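Posting this for the archive.
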Amino acid sequence: MAQLILFNKPYGVLTQFTDRENGRATLADYIDLPGVYAAGRLDRDSEGLLLLTDHGPLNAQIAHPKYKKPKTYLVQVDGEPTDEALEALRNGVELKDGMTLPAKVRRIAEPEGLWERDPPVRYRANILTSWIELSITEGRNRQVRRMTAAVGFPTLRLIRHAIGDWTLDGLAPGEWKVIEVEAPPATHRRLSPGSAKPPRRDELPAGDAGDETKPAKRPAKKGGYKSARQRSQNDTGQSDGGTGNRSGNKQGIDKFKRGGAKPSRAGSRPNSRSQSRAKSSPQARPKKG
């Protein structure tokens, strides 16, 4: 089982536990349980249900959009939405960050027993206001406000009434309660204590390694890629068993690679510096008497 906190967040409260820079109201002003974190967010100028938990997988299941947990809002809008506007919300509206998913929406009367907001919504005698109930499965930034504005009816007051099957019924602003819920399985499994790597066979307790026998090692294949040094060694061994000319020539090449003299080849012409210099020097001419 996991611990889940249902909190009716008042207007003007941040969904975090500290605000050292500005000193605004935070969750720490209402909730004194250690080790719990908000599952998702609720804007500072919005009210209603906020869930908190100390269980990581439960937090992810509530907050992550991939689980498509519906969130239901009571929305006071400026004016009275038309049928076309409600149909547009049901089909999805175009926002700056793309189309929204289809939403469930219907007109409702002003909710009974609704508390007064502090500060109150600005009242204008010549402009009517109305209420709708809107359910979405996404969690974009200020999405409900942007959706109603996109169809021509800006949001005046926003109260989140439910997340999935959890509601704020019976909770006054600032009140919270703790319930026990079924804990979802962890999203990952730690295979060995203190490490994300699987344990070696010799680290497993007795009996966990199984009765499987280790497979026999496959014999090494003959042939395959060989380096130039390996090929030269093989060639040297083969030449020693046959004619000595190849072996001697190979030794001379190895000596040349190590910085020695260049090996001589049979039938090659002499190439000494003295001979080439003698050929290139001009003959002495007799002096005229």
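The radius of gyration is 42 Å. The helical segments are 56-63, 83-91, 143-150, 228-241, 244-257, 273-280.
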